[in-house]
Structures are given as structure tokens and as C-alpha cells.
Design goal:
Two copies of one chain form a homodimer. Chain A is built from twelve helices and ten strands. Chain A has 344 residues and is an alpha+beta fold. The first copy, chain A, has three domains: 5-78, Arc Repressor Mutant, subunit A (Orthogonal Bundle); 87-129 and 230-338, GAF domain (Beta-Lactamase, 2-Layer Sandwich); 131-225, Heat-inducible transcription repressor hrca homolog, domain 3 (Enolase-like, domain 1). In chain A, the strands form three sheets. In chain A, strands 7-3-10-9-8 form a five-stranded antiparallel β-sheet, sandwiched between helices. A three-stranded antiparallel β-sheet of chain A has the order 4-5-6. In chain A, strand 4 and strand 5 form a beta hairpin. In chain A, helix 1 (5-21) crosses helix 3 (40-52), helix 5 runs parallel beside helix 12 (319-339) and helix 8 (194-204) runs antiparallel to helix 9. Chain A binds a DNA duplex (30 and 30 nucleotides) through residues 24, 26-28, 38-42, 44-45, 47-48, 58-64.
Chain lengths: 344, 344
DNA sequence: GTTAGCACTCATCAGGGTCGAGTGCTAATT
DNA sequence: AATTAGCACTCGACCCTGATGAGTGCTAAC
């Protein structure tokens, strides 16, 4: 089912045109393109074949042709090798992001904005899964009579905190001592392992059972269990600039998507572990994305944790640019976030 | 320029109807309402008067009448006294929000969601201005070789943090000692005063000049100066459900508004210190809000700090409900956030 | 195998007619 | 004097129509 060279060339021309104009492409238009040395009639015959093969579709009898998802798929697969981002742009992006020192949230925020800006589509970045991170320090800071802020510093400089209740008579020296102890016990373990470790600690030392109970509860509840996904969205309204979203219903559907961040994160993450994954139109499970394409990539933090970044645009998006941009951006994020992390 | 009773009644009927239907209201419609004992003809005469007085407008000759901003203003002023939120709803909201323990961010997030949900308009809440908060504790937690997380706990349990650079040979005991010292020096002062205090400390003790320099720089840069406004938005897409936003251009304008949070915060905050302020249509400075109304209220945190909450909806919004909801919500937030704060 | 020619299709748009909601005015009623 | 009924008038919404033009498929000529 491989296309001969001329068909492929014509199909490519049609897709290229459609990516820009979002209008059905006619035979005349194709034949006028440079590099295409055939008359409209010839093109028509080929287009007719392509339609039969399922690569093109006609919105109505006397309209031009529109590429099908199958066509995009072919196009995308054939194009992935040849990236295209100019060096100045790269430098600019890297500079902007690296200016955000440290905090993972900030880096991701900056990256999402840059990605949306560079592609002119909507971008989404999911922070690394927290359960898989290794704890480096645990520290409690008194906030109030009876409450303290528990801070967990993990590898890769990702920091999580939660308010916990403490006994009223606890001094800050006391808290410090306990923090040191917890750090000793927990460091180098993942958050997911915390529960078992606590079980052991509880047996070993009877000290401050009540406080430890509170700490453990907070860790489980706030840091492990229902921790909402950390997910950042850039350029939410970018897609409204494209004609396919001039229908208010579609726009609304699309925008509501971002209100449920957990679902969004879930969707982004099942990219099957591919380095770069592209889902076109109906290849997406979510209804609101049925006429969008979603390009996702993975970035790494240190040696174990990883996160996902994605771009959502119309099916006729500029895949070449998006893919290379994602590739580049993934590397930048990895570099920024792993830079912090010296060994554990 | 006060309206006689009948005119007022007719005007109110028109506004009430328009709030629901978003369609020009005709004399017949008004006359059919219960409580209005007049024929369409009579109503027409009154409506004609009201138009002359500037309370009504006609989109075109043979259409019904539409309330002007002046009418809304009158309506709103006359209605502010009589709140309307049912007790179960109140209980539900209070319960939902109080479930978010502690962290200011969480409370505000929850409140914004609730507010948007209860009103079916878009809600905005600005966190208390950080400069005016009093410091309760300063604590540094080592993160990495050469970097630490500085945490500033302020009154009202609002917590700010920033990554700072520290000398490589700093131990955690060392950091703890310095934290204690900083806490002693800074507690009970506002962030805005930090600079002067540092000047004094610098003279008094020569210890660890380099670290202190870093701390001070971080405080100034990250916590005082360009700290972006903490602002939370709920129900961004809610307004898309109203016919006045079925125009994609308007929708886009409106949505882009939320991308510049600083401007948004600035606008919310200049409500002239009123308890509840309502800006209708052109009373708003921002173009994107020219055909919206903005209702803002103030909440307090402890005795000194305060923040703003707001609802954005179409000019024909249900003012009665929104106002009473804002009033209630402001109190809930105040209570939640001040509850934490025992004396400093 | 390629192309020119031609009849055919169909979305888009402007013009024109009808319909109905709503008005303003005038005259009749209370 | 206030209210109401009646009526002519206005104007947007809707539907139908025909013209236009982009684009197609087929056939015959090159």
C-alpha cells in the first residue's frame, strides 16, 4: 500500500497547503505549485486515486480535497527525521528558561509558555511523578501554636510541603531534632516507600508517637495519595485563533478540557513510553480532541523520574516544527532540572 | 430625577426579564407579568418615558427595550440591601472550603471554584498583599550542595519560599542557628521593612556576611519586588455559556484577559476600598470588560492584611445573587484565614 | 501517458418577499 | 385625566431564488 513517488509528492503538496490555509485544496492550486510539472487534469486523476486509497476526502462534490487522518499519519511518519528549529530561536528559549533558577514549578511554567509561544498552539507540561522521587530532606518549620509546615525536599530539587498538626508544647529545637531524625531515616527512599519505613520507625522508638503519626498521615494524604497532578498549561487561548475553532461549541469543549487536570495528565502520560508520540484526530480517546492532534514527548529528571510535555493543535498543525520543537524543549527541561541534581 | 413607583416597577420588571432571557423586552411581555396590572399600551407610554430618561434603549425601531447601564446602576443600588442565598447552600460552601486545611493558596483556590460554581460566572480572587504581612518565622532548609530553600512564614499562615545560594560548607545545624537568629530579628516586622533591618544587622554582627547577603537579596528580589500577584481564577469558561459571548472575538478577548494576571489584579484592587463595589459595563477601564460587569469585595486576614475577590459576568448578571454570594464568601474566607492566626 | 475542453455540481452570496414582534399615535372608554 | 383599544408603520428574521465561481469527472485529442 505504498504510494508511488508522484502520488506522494501531490499528497504532500496538498497537506502543506492545507496546513496553511485550512481550506480544501483544488487541483489547480496544486498544479501551480513549483516542483509540480503537471496540469490540473493530471493532478485530478491522481487525486481521485488518492481519494480511493483513503488519503483524501471531499467535503462536498465540487469542493477541493482535504487530507484524511491517514494522510497526516503518513506525512508525519515520513517527516519525523528532519527537524527544523533555527539556532537563534533555540538560544532565546534556552536563555529564557535558564533564567528561572531552581524551583521545578518555575522551570515548567516557563517552558510551557515558551512552547506555546514558539508553536502558537496550546502546550501542556506534566511535572515528574512525585511518588518516584527520592527524598533528600524532611524539615518541619513551626507556623503557629499547634501547626507546622512540613517540607520534603526531593532529588531534582522538587519541593513539596504540607501543613500538619503538632503538639502544642513543641519547641522549634525539638522540631529540628525530629526533622534531622526523619531525614536520616527517609533520605534516599522514595515517597512511595514511606509507609513501610514508618512502620519500622514506630517500633524502634517510642518517642513522640503522636507527632510522628501526624507526619506520616500528612505524607500519605497530601504527598502520596491524592496529590493532584502538577500540570501546567500554556497558551490556552492560542487555538481560538484558528478557523477550526470559530465554532463556539467546539471552543468551549476544548477549553473545558483544561479544567480537569487529572484527566488531562492521565491522557498525556499514556503515550506508551515513546520518545515522541503523535496522536492525530480520532487516535485520541477524548472527545474534545477528536479533531485535534496531540504531540507528546518525555523529559527526564535525574536518572529515574520523568515527566511529559505535549502540544495540542488542529490536525493540520505544522508537525515538522512542532516535533522538532518538542524534541528540543524536552532536552532543555531535562538539562535544567537535572542540572540541580548532584548525586543523592 | 427619582422615578415614580410605577416607572420603577416597570423598569425592575424589564431588568428581571432581561437578566434571564438576554432578549429585548416588549410591552406585552411586561404587561403579562403578575403584579403589573396595566395593558401593553400603558406600559408603552411609560417605557417611552423611561427611554427618554436614559434608562432604556432600543436596539432598533421595532424591537423591545433593553436596560441601559444607568438602569442597572439604579437597580443595583436599590437592591444591595436584600441578600439572597439559601442556608443549605451556605452550609455546603462553608463545609467545602473549611475542608481545605491551612494553606492560603488552597483556601483561595477552593473559594474561587465555589464562587464560580455558585454564581455560574467567572470568579477571581487575589491573595493578600504580601508586603503588608508580618513575618513570623524564617527558616532555611538545605536542598543541595550550595543551595537552600528559604521559607518565610508570615502571619495568617501564608508561606513564601525561594531558593537561595549558600556557601558550600554550611551544615544544617549552622543553617538552623542562622534561621533562629533571623527569626528573632525579623519576626513581627513586615516584609517591606526587611531592608532596613538588614542594614542594622549587617553592622552589628560580622558573622556570615556572605550568607546574609544572599538571604537579603533573595528576600528583596523574590519576595518583595517582582513577586507576581497571587491570583486565582475560577470558572474561566463559564461565560462562554451566555449568548453575549457566542461571538468568538469577544470570547477570545475575554479569555486573554486572564493571561496577564498582574493587570487583572491591579484592576480588581482599585475598588476604592469599598466593601462591595460594582462596576457596570463602561465603568470598567479595561476594554475587554466594557460589556461585562465586575463585582468586587474585600476580605480581611487577621487585622492588617486584606485581599480582593471578584465576579465577572454579563452586564445583565443576577446582581442580587452575586452580591449576596460575594458578601457571604468574603466572610467565609476571612474566617478561614484569620482562624489560623492567633496573635503574633 | 498527458492534457484540453466541457458539462455538471454545489457552496456562497446578494436580492426580494413574507411574517411577526413591537412600536407610536389617535381616538374611544372609564 | 388616566387608561385602553385599534391601527398603521418599522424592521429584523427567515426563506426562497438566481447568479457566480471554484472545482470536479469524463471524453476525446495530442
Amino acid at each position: 500500500m505504498i504510494l508511488d513517488e508522484r502520488k506522494a509528492m501531490i499528497l504532500k503538496a496538498i497537506i502543506d497547503d492545507y496546513i496553511i490555509t485550512a481550506m480544501p485544496v483544488g487541483s489547480r492550486t496544486v498544479s501551480r505549485k513549483k516542483g509540480v510539472g503537471f496540469s490540473p487534469a493530471t493532478i485530478r486523476n491522481e487525486m481521485s486515486d488518492l481519494e480511493e486509497l483513503g488519503y483524501l476526502a471531499q467535503p462536498h462534490t465540487s469542493a477541493g480535497r482535504v487530507p484524511s487522518e491517514k494522510a497526516y499519519r503518513l506525512y508525519v511518519d515520513s517527516i519525523l527525521k528532519s527537524p527544523e528549529v533555527n539556532p537563534e530561536e533555540k538560544a532565546h528559549i534556552e536563555d529564557y528558561i535558564s533564567r528561572r533558577s531552581g524551583q521545578v514549578e518555575d522551570v515548567i511554567r516557563a517552558a510551557a509558555d515558551m512552547l506555546a509561544d514558539a508553536t502558537q498552539y496550546t502546550s501542556v507540561i506534566v511535572a515528574p511523578r512525585i511518588q518516584s522521587l527520592r527524598i533528600k530532606r524532611v524539615q518541619m518549620v513551626p507556623v503557629d501554636e499547634g501547626s507546622a509546615l512540613m517540607i520534603v525536599v526531593t532529588s531534582a530539587g522538587i519541593i513539596k510541603d504540607a501543613l500538619i498538626a503538632i503538639p502544642n508544647d513543641m519547641t522549634s529545637e525539638n522540631l529540628f531534632a525530629i526533622s534531622e531524625m526523619l531525614t536520616r531515616e527517609l533520605s534516599n527512599h522514595t515517597l512511595a516507600e514511606v509507609r513501610q519505613i514508618f512502620a519500622r520507625v514506630f517500633r524502634d522508638m517510642s518517642m513522640n508517637r503522636r507527632l510522628l503519626g501526624g507526619v506520616m498521615k500528612a505524607m500519605e494524604e497530601k504527598l502520596v495519595e491524592d496529590a493532584p497532578e502538577d500540570i501546567v498549561i500554556g497558551g490556552t487561548t492560542k487555538l481560538l485563533n484558528y478557523p477550526e475553532y470559530s465554532d463556539i461549541e467546539k471552543a468551549k469543549n476544548f477549553l473545558t478540557l483544561f479544567e480537569n487536570k487529572d484527566r488531562l495528565a492521565a491522557m498525556l502520560k499514556n503515550s506508551g513510553g515513546m520518545q515522541i508520540s503523535i496522536r492525530i484526530g480520532n487516535e485520541n480517546e477524548m472527545d474534545a480532541l477528536k479533531d485535534c492532534s496531540l504531540v507528546t514527548a518525555t523529559y527526564r529528571v535525574g536518572d529515574y523520574a520523568s515527566g511529559t510535555l505535549g502540544v495540542i493543535g488542529p490536525t493540520r498543525m505544522n508537525y515538522r516544527r512542532v516535533v522538532s520543537m518538542m524534541d528540543f524543549m524536552g532536552n532543555v527541561i531535562s538539562k535544567m532540572l537535572s542540572g540541580n541534581t548532584n548525586e543523592v
